[in-house]
Task: structure prediction
Amino acid sequence: MPSTLSTLPNSLAPDRMGAPGIGLAIASSVAPLTVVAGVVTTGLAVTGLTAVSAAMIAVAAALVIFAVGYMAMARHITNTGAFYAYVSKGLGRPLGVGSSWIALLAYNCFQIASYGGLGAISEPLFQDWFGVDVPWWVFALVVWAIVAFLGRRDVSVSEKVLAVLVISETALVVVYSLIILFSSDYGFSAKPFSAGQLFGAGGGALLAIGATSFAGVEQGAVYIEESKDPLRSVPRATYYTIGFIAVLYAVASWVQISAAGDQAVARAGEEGPDLFFNEAAATVGGWALDLGHILFLTSLIAAMIAFHNIIARYTYALGREGVLPKLFGQTVGGAPRAASTAQSVLGLVVIGIYAVTGLDPLVELFFVGGTTGGVGVLLLITLTSASVIGFFLRAAHGETAWRRLGAPVIATLLLIGISYLAVTNLATLYGVDPGTGPALYMPIVAVVVLVAGIAWGLILRHTRPDVYQGIGLGPRSAVATTGGFAAMMAGGSGPATEQPQGNR
Amino acid sequence: MTAPLALADDLWMVAHDRPNGASFLGIKPLGIGLGAALIAELIMANWLNLADGALYVHPQASRYPPPADPATADVFGRMQQEEAAQRGRRRDVTDPVGLSVEEWIQHLHNGHAQQLVERRLTMSGLAVEESRGGLFRSSRTVVVPQSSSVSGWPAARVRDNLREGQQLSEQDLTLAGLIVATGLAKEALGGIGGRQREFLVHQTQAIMRLPLRELVICAETAVGRLIMIR
Result:
């Protein structure tokens, strides 16, 4: 299909994105500053491990190899933005449903965790600037309301605004890193790169943090159908973005940890997300701290909106397919309103629980939620990678052996290794005793959700074969059991029952 | 008012039937609906046919003067150009060249179809340009229905016919389909109840040609895809 309109004047194709635009879109759901200032410091404090740069590079390497097969498969399926579409096609629909539920859980963890990070940063900031002590959850609720409103109204942050935010936060990471690097008392440390630590006690926790840091890079596949040249521009944008972000993370973490010297873990615990900004401010003055805070907040808000939209469209696609209640598949004025509302309600409930119980928003919500989401996405990527092998074993679809077999096999093995290390080190990741707290209940929740999803898939196979057939097709599902036109006609004759099967 | 408007004009009115004349739909879903409506107008006038996702220009089309109406003439002209270009790249010139309807809906949705329809409506006086200043933005020109009786008419016609079980024209059935496909059913038809829905399905199957049904489903899928790439 992509080739048919090659002669059309560009004015007719204003939508088509090139590699730079796609790269920016990917980077904006990754939110680099949130990672460098928030995830890295909290990770240092909680795990007490410093080989962050090595973990970032290891995860990036696995992801680039994964992306080869992932992008190849994306060209042959529909609903390319959703992992469960790949799993449904590669490993079977029941596992696809299971992974879709895991995805909803993981993305919700990310999105809702951000409210904790935002609240925790805003509270001291507001006191500094205005001298008023307002609890963190008030800020969380204000931003929650904004996200909920925009989601219901189908307003996504415009690409230009996202581009400005992403470029400025990336520039800030680069400039601050240089400032710290060239400050007078800077001492090099090789610790951030000591790869050996990854395999030692608790090393898997660092890999989980690495996976958390890259969550969002999978979003590039969404644009496969929209890009100028799907064979090249989306894969290229994805490889370059992963590579660039890996270097950015590795260098910024290295500089940040080196500058703190032996005090890195202790300072990360005391200063939290301020560590990176404080190190720069030590040389150039207090404005660096303020500017850092502002961009940290905007970066978080942009990521929240991005993840809210990801969750809403996941829920919408599942509603359209009839896997989730059909209510979620309805649109009002072009927006998936019920799906959006459901996510907002969930967010509100979680903010409420944390506010009432007095749990720490930065560690218990932002870090625990964020890394849980990260491990969830890591497991999904691993499943997806295995699905690529399964998909291409049935037919080559004209892809090279490297793309359909070589890269996916290597990536799957690497990802299984990383996932194994991450899951076996959950206690270190959460900073709790093994078998207690989140290290105990998170795996249980994940297994229950996965098994329930698989069971639901199997139930659908027997009770609703039409729905079962459409799993993974998203808006192209032939049943589209939503009160839409296709669904209305599905009972009758004519093309409605055969269309749209979409064998792409 | 008794003479029905063109299909895309009808749909535009349904989408803008609000007290302030603004659209219920965002630019993109509105554009998908209007693009599909313009294509439907060409199909109903036999300039185009649609089968298995491909649009075919009528083989004798070049012998006739183009469509008299500038909006459909614009779309049709582009399609003829594209068809000729594709034909030029092929050795076998006798086979009909199909244009992907999905691609065309995608291409028309980003403001182009809306521009064409709004130009047509302002020329006929059914819609007027209005300057709007916002609290936070500079003033801009928007196109709004000339009056609420004009904008309320198409939806009321479909609604009444459905309620009274009266036969609908193919154009109104396509309009109803596009209303459902773009997510306007709640606003325009007040949601469709069981009996009316059954009647609509029955009428659609009896009267609406397959290409038009396929087109509406393509539009619905396109709106769904739009949500997936937000």
